[in-house]
Design goal:
The complex is a heterodimer of chains A (about 325) and B (about 260).
Chain A lengths: L4 E5 L8 H13 L7 E7 L5 H7 L4 E6 L8 H15 L3 E5 L2 H13 L4 E5 L1 E5 L2 E8 L4 E7 L5 E5 L17 E2 L11 E8 L12 E5 L9 H11 L2 E4 L1 H5 L20 E5 L5 H7 L4 E6 L12 E4 L2 H17 L1
Parallel strand pairs in A: 1-2, 1-4, 2-3, 3-10, 4-9, 5-9, 12-13, 12-14, 14-15, 15-16
Antiparallel strand pairs in A: 6-7, 7-8
Helix pairs in contact in A: 3-4, 5-8
Chain B lengths: L1 E5 L2 E3 L6 E2 L5 E2 L6 E3 L3 H15 L2 E7 L5 H10 L3 E5 L9 H14 L5 E5 L10 H9 L3 E12 L4 E8 L2 E8 L2 E5 L11 H9 L4 E2 L18 E7 L8 E2 L4 H14 L4
Parallel strand pairs in B: 1-6, 1-8, 6-7, 7-13, 8-12, 9-12
Antiparallel strand pairs in B: 2-5, 3-4, 9-10, 10-11
The chains are: A alpha/beta (about 325), B alpha/beta (about 260).
């Protein structure tokens, strides 16, 4: 019998998050297409539409736990609800999107089972009956394949953009509603406020096109040529860690092992040498274009198209040409 | 006020690092070791809490005897005490077994108000220690903290700003609590010459697993739930097509290729 796989659902801007859908699709693949082995589990204040959305991405069944205290994620309540449910139902594998909260939940949940989570996986595969997770260590300088030997459910967190979003299909699953078991008394953690990142346009995770800048920009003002090219392509602006650390642009723009892993159709890297830690976050792009002064820059090792030259000449030329072609 | 900071020694490069038959990282002997680059931020955070509220900062690591060096660095920055958890049986612990060791050390060091640790370690990158400590010690955990807004050990309350996907979250919790910090929370101070000289003369007490109430089978390889099967450099590069010419020529060629392949 196929091993039972749970996918913990997280909400995105509209409905179930893209990362959750990617993982549901992957879980379905790991189950050999037997969707009865894949269960979507959702905690929240309400679960309207959740069952259908999770089923459309590959879940054969959906369990929802709703309570006003589950409106915003807190480890105390989510670990309590999910660990009690897992104690009853005994899933073999639990997959969670490796967002900030998702990684915290994965580690806490796995510890509550007496084991540990394999974090930040970019690939999952069976070796016989054993699920292995592939993940980056040492800032992307090493890739480890990790086995989870925990007692009970094996928890893995999965980096967003590691797998394609599955085509929507199926659906029509009605959720099983379960009353969550939550700690009594006052909550130890209270979420008071959420302040979205300035400039709601930093949508790196969902962008089809990303134009990124690195140290080759010389100074913060250099980002203007990046922004111009991104604007004409309708894309988002990314950055290397070096320029984020230098304060030229805010952290939410950072692509790489310690920033975001992105999977756009087109990634244009300008003035980025290609430190391993950056490559770890963007080699997943479908097509990569690199522009750099140094013909030996490691970025050219992962690029599909490379241009050696001055980005302050190349970028405006690309902007002009794309404008001409795209806007007639 | 008592703050505990957990620090970690990491190999400077992964070149000498291998995986044991038990699936744990082994740093070998010859390589250079450093304080994890996130740790000065944790230490600075704890020192600033002490600057405001008084009390003491205790630095602890679990590792090999050579890790005494990074504890002396913490003392030089201003930590009041330092302890090393070392035991043959604990050698080769994954992050979850390490969290057991650190939880035991926290309990042994007595009543604490706060535990400060980095969001993740630079070598294994596991984002595990903070949340695992919260479970073992049954106290709240606030991860990815980029600002401590309020710290009130008297009334057992802390308010922080977390850096999470899409924005910042302001969260309040009861003390004692664990916080995991991100780089940039504070600029770490440099140790003073006097601090370095004093620290070099300090003895660092060593705690065995018996001292912290742990058992051999719960730590080290046998107590480690995650095991590496392999540990290799990332996959080799793909071929790159170089485009040459004047800026206008390369723009024309590249845009042509991208439009032809319907990438957009």
């Amino acid at each position: 019998m196929a091993q039972s796989i749970w996918v913990i659902g997280q909400r995105g801007k509209s409905g179930i998050s893209r990362a959750t859908r990617e993982i549901l699709g992957k879980a379905n693949g790991l189950a050999g297409g037997d969707s009865s082995a894949v269960t979507g589990v959702y905690c929240g204040a309400s679960a309207d539409g959740v069952a259908d959305e999770m089923a459309q991405s590959g879940a054969g069944s959906v369990i929802t736990m709703t309570d006003p205290r589950l409106e915003t994620y807190t480890a105390d309540f989510y670990v309590s609800a999910i660990s009690h449910l897992a104690g009853d139902r005994k899933p073999d594998v639990i997959l969670i999107a490796a967002t900030a909260d998702g990684r915290e939940l994965a580690a806490a949940l796995a510890t509550s089972f007496g084991g540990g989570a394999v974090q930040d996986c970019t690939e999952l595969e069976w070796d016989g009956d054993t699920l292995l997770g592939t993940r980056a260590c040492f800032g992307g300088n090493r890739t480890a394949v990790v086995e989870n030997c925990s007692p009970g459910a094996k928890v893995f967190s999965v980096r967003p953009n590691s797998f394609p979003v599955p085509d929507a299909g199926g659906g029509g699953v009605s959720a099983e509603e379960v009353a969550p078991v939550l700690p009594e008394g006052d909550p130890r953690v209270k979420v008071l406020e959420f302040i979205p990142d300035a400039g709601g346009t930093i949508n790196l995770l969902d962008a089809d096109v990303i134009v990124s800048g690195g140290r080759g920009l010389g100074k913060a003002e250099g980002f203007k040529v990046i922004q111009d090219l991104a604007d004409v392509l309708g894309g988002a602006v990314g950055a290397s860690r070096a320029v984020v650390d230098s304060g030229w642009i805010a952290y939410p723009h950072q692509v790489g092992q310690t920033g975001k892993t992105v999977k756009p159709k087109l990634y244009i890297a300008l003035g980025i040498s290609g430190a391993i830690q950056h490559l770890a976050g963007m080699r997943t792009a479908d097509t990569i274009v690199a522009v750099n002064k140094d013909e030996n820059a490691p970025i050219f090792n992962v690029a599909h198209y490379g241009i050696v030259g001055d980005l302050f000449e190349i970028a405006p030329a690309l902007t002009a040409k794309f404008r001409e072609v795209l806007q007639g | 006020m008592k703050a505990i900071v957990f620090v970690k020694e990491v190999a400077e490069t992964p070149d000498g690092v291998s995986v044991t038959s038990d699936g744990q990282l082994s740093s070998g002997e010859g390589g250079a070791f450093l304080t994890d680059p996130i740790d000065p931020y944790s230490i600075e955070t704890a020192l600033q809490l002490k600057d405001k509220s008084g009390g003491e900062v205790i630095a602890i690591t679990a590792g090999e005897p050579r890790a005494e060096k990074i504890l002396k660095e913490a003392l030089a920055m201003g930590a009041d005490e330092a302890f090393l958890v070392h035991d043959e049986a604990a050698s080769g612990s994954d992050p979850y077994a390490t969290a057991r060791l650190l939880a035991g050390a926290a309990k042994k060091s007595g009543d604490y108000d706060i535990i400060v640790v980095g969001e993740r370690a630079a070598d294994d990158n596991s984002y595990a220690i903070g949340p695992a400590l919260g479970q073992h010690l049954d106290i709240p955990v606030l991860t990815y903290v980029n600002e401590v807004r309020e710290f009130d050990p008297e009334n057992k309350k802390i308010r922080v700003v977390r850096s999470i996907d899409g924005g910042s979250q302001v969260v309040e919790a009861t003390l004692p609590a664990v916080i995991t910090v991100v780089k940039g929370i504070h600029e770490p101070r440099y140790p003073s010459l006097m601090g370095i000289r004093k620290a070099s003369k300090r003895e660092v007490p060593v705690w065995s697993i018996a001292d912290i109430g742990e058992e051999a089978e719960r730590v080290g390889p046998s107590g480690s739930p995650t095991r590496m099967r392999s540990f290799d450099p990332p996959p080799p590069p793909s071929g790159c097509e170089m485009i040459e010419g004047t800026p206008e020529e390369v723009a024309e060629q590249l845009v042509g290729k991208i439009m032809d392949k319907k990438i957009l």
